Amino acid sequence: MSKKRRSASQRRTKIGVFDSGIGGLTVYKELRKKYPFCDFIYFADTAHVPYGDKSEKTIILYTKKIVSFLLRKKADLIVCACNTASAVALKSLSANCPVPIHGVIDAAVREAAVFSRVAVIGTKLTIKSGVYEKKLKKMNGKIKVKSLAAPLFVPLVEEGWAGTDVSGRVVKIYLAPVKLMCPEALILGCTHYPVLRKEISDYMGGDVRLVDSSSVVGAIALSVSMRRGRGKSSFYVSDDPGHFVRTAKKIMKVSAGRAKLCTEFL
Predict the structure, then answer these.
(1) In terms of Cα–Cα distance, which of 213, 217, 227, 244 is closest to 39?
(2) pTM for the complete prediction?
(3) What is the pLDDT of residue 224?
(4) Does residue 170 contact residue 152 with C-beta atoms inside 8 Å?
(5) I need a labelling partner for 256 at 20 to 30 A (CA). Which of 135, 157, 173, 199 fits?
(6) What is the mean pLDDT of the segment spanning 104-109?
(7) Cα(first)–Cα(last) distance of the chain, in Å?
(8) Do domains 3-103+216-265 and 106-215 have the same CATH topology?
(9) How far apart are CA 123 and CA 174, in angstroms?
(10) Any bridge partners for residue 119, and if so which?
(11) 106-215 maps to which CATH number?
(12) Between vectors from CA 153 to CA 18 and to CA 17, what angle results, nearest 5°?
């Protein structure tokens, strides 16, 4: 075997993960645990965060550019770690993507569909799409679903306000109508929301099952090219890498100290 062919066969499998900001790091961390021997490429579209108040057409435009970027970086598999993008853009992205691309909605739906009463919180666009309710009712025709937009949760997380009295008060204001439903499960329909898990759990009560986007990790089966050593992680952002690095470290406990700015997305 030639040196060139031998090195190609030993190349680490690359997993691309993207989100509008740091929220997708909740999925990245779980994938890292499952596939520590893979290389990771994480892209945060910080120039356009949050995605939830954008139009469907705009989200498709942004995410197509991101997927093209990850493919240029030789990603073998891509995870759309954003509920908004998974809700409105995944079908379009998958149609032209030469590698497997996973969204974060279906796995959460499968986990929650076994319950009788389920609440869903997400960004405005995710809730407007109705994707969770449609998929839940398709799997369980008798299920009762209440959906509610909680747009302030994303900036609270991005600005580092999780775990404060402010975030606790905002959680109570948003979730008051949800609590009246007495749901058995609550889908955290945004990858930022698990950062507020304590506040949400404290308010909703311990009997309510919290289902989040990290469920997707269990649904991903990947054939990897190398299973020894530890892979590398590279981080890219579309704006303000310094803020991303600081917030990733403070909130997500992820070291992204060499995050690179990609000006092509500005």
Answers:
(1) 227
(2) 0.91
(3) 74
(4) yes
(5) 199
(6) 94
(7) 44
(8) yes
(9) 12
(10) 146, 186
(11) 3.40.50.1860
(12) 10
* Mean pLDDT score, 245-265: 93
pLDDT at 9: 55
pLDDT (average), residues 78-98: 95
The structure tokens listed for 265 are 């997305």
Instruction: Please state, in angstroms and rounded to a whole number, the distance separating the CA atoms of residues 194 and 186.
Output: 11
Q: Which helix (H) or strand (E) holds 95?
A: helix 90-95
Q: Token pair 């299973």 is at which residue?
A: 227
* pLDDT attached to residue 3: 47
Identify the bridge partners of residue 43 per DSSP, sorted by sequence position: 18, 236
CATH code assigned to 3-103+216-265: 3.40.50.1860
Residues recognised as catalytic? 82, 190
Q: What contacts 117, CB < 8 A, 6 or more positions away?
A: 143, 144, 146, 181, 182, 183, 184, 185
Per domain, the residue ranges of the chain are 3-103+216-265, 106-215
